[in-house]
Amino acid sequence: MKKTNRLFIISAALVSLALGACNKDLNLTPPSNTIVGNDGQGTAGSYIKDATTAEAALNSCYAFFRSGSSEYYVLDYFNIGDAQSDNAYAGADNAAGFEIDEFRLLSTNAWASRDWGYLYNQITACNAVIANVPKVTDPALTANRKAQIVGEAQFIRARAYFDLVRIFGDLPLVLTELPTITADNLEEIYPLLYPARKSADSVYAQIDADLKAAAEVVPVSAANKGFVTKGAVYTLLAKVAATHKPINWAQVENYTNQVTALGYTLLPVYDHLWDGAHENSAEAIFELNFAGWDTGGNWGTSMFLGTDWKKFCNPSNDLIRAYQYEKDTVRFKSTITFANVNGKWGDARLSLDSFPFFYKMRKTDATQNIIMYRLADVLLLKAEALNEQGNVGAANTIVTQIRERAHLKPLEITDQAAMRLAIEKERRLELAFEGIRWHDLVRTDRAIPVMQAVTDGKGVNLGYRLTPESLLWPIPQSEMDQNANLVQNEGY
To answer: Which residues does the UniProt record annotate as the domain RagB/SusD (predicted)?
Structure first.
């Protein structure tokens, strides 16, 4: 629907109400996937009335990781974090993926639209919990558990907003549920129906507030790493602090210390993180658990691995060279596998005799877990924080610790600038295909120089042309068309 049509309809509705032509409840669908009750009464979360429905509402927030937004978490999360970076090419045959990979993104890009929707849908589910669970008076829901439920929802909401703000920049900040829309409150509710974008600073402030509140109430441990714990909260606080400028590196260090104090340990064998036999390990901090197709299976593996059709997120020549130059055979073998695909498809950049595949997801029975946060990531963030505060020696010790597991020689770096680049490289080799690389490059102001220097397998520059504006995605045109209060990002 065009903006002019949308505005005409709303204006007509306001006039009609003012004239008393209609006094029934209205059923308008607001943007950003904020919803009202299916029966037109109350809010989406008005069904939350007792302990059972409170737990069910929280489960619905978690369910978005496995089903409601699974296309984001098992596929697009990696396309954004790795295929958009120098780690991989988009692969497959999807034009929307090529636009993202080659920085030719349009506001009509289908992936951008769906990811906006998936994340806002998850936020909507969290809003229902945060707004309604505190109102429950059922004695079966203890005050402690009530606070935990809200805290877990606040973490999930903050995690979704963190991805959104890094992808799109300024955002509509949807934090409440809409009441039933009536003749008396339509004008008041209009800004909630069609919210304007808030500054990225405002979004980060809300993320920070949600996480600090969650840190006070969520447990230290849970049944498995698929539930929110203090470790997950402090990890996300550290990531947020290392992203939102101006960066307070002492704060980043503090949050990483909060995580390490909780007793997580590196697995002695790197491949155990990915072999499917050591899930919910001592290194994992937050991990999406998949049990099979009946409960929202992880179908992402078949999107990245296999020779039946050309897969997404094909490892780049640049990443393959990075492992080879470092002689990093341990992480290389765990991260990338190869197969002969002659006669199956063509590729202008990669060898068909030895075609590379993303290998950190391997199980094709829908049970492969996805590690979202783990200790090695946190330790390298701590090394970064220490280095930026001038403690190069302590940073060197941490990076060497990470390298030892990969059977690589210790580092002996004393220069801060050299250590900065060493940490960048170590994060790439350690965390490739975990949805992290692109966001690392952007937050460290390295995306433009790194991407514009990327070459193919023959050393020919790939010709990526980035601008500061292209570091953000456009607001989806579908959202712009239905909400006249949205303003497009520069450059689109």
So the answer is: 362-492
* Single pTM value for the model: 0.92
Give pLDDT, residue 407.
Answer: 98
Predicted confidence at residue 22, as pLDDT, reads 37
Q: On the CB side of 386, how many CA atoms lie within 13 Å of its CA? A: 21
The DSSP bridge partners found for residue 284 are: 374
Helix (H, G, I), strand (E, B) or coil at 78: helix
* Euclidean distance between CA atoms 165 and 172, whole angstroms: 10
Averaged in consecutive runs of 10 residues, what is the pLDDT profile of the chain (492 residues)? 38 34 36 37 81 98 92 97 98 96 96 97 96 97 98 98 98 89 81 92 98 98 97 98 98 98 98 97 98 90 97 98 98 98 97 98 95 99 98 98 98 98 98 98 98 95 95 98 96 94
Q: 64 near 118, Cβ under 8 Å?
A: yes
Residues 284 and 376 sit within 8 Å (Cβ to Cβ): no
Rounded CA-CA distance 82/39 in Å is 42
CA distance 213 to 15: 43
Q: Which of 322, 344, 292 is nearest to 433 (CA)?
A: 322
246: preceding bond cis by omega (within 30 degrees):
yes
Closest CA to 235 of 360, 423, 396, 379: 379
| Amino acid occupying residue 66 | R
In the numeric block, which tokens belong to residue 178?
């809409």
Distance separating alpha carbons of residues 116 and 136, to the nearest angstrom = 31
pLDDT given at position 11: 35
**Tokens standing for 93?**
């045959």
Among the listed residues 228, 221, 213, 211, the one whose alpha carbon sits nearest the alpha carbon of residue 372:
228
DSSP strand pairing (88-91 vs 336-339): unpaired
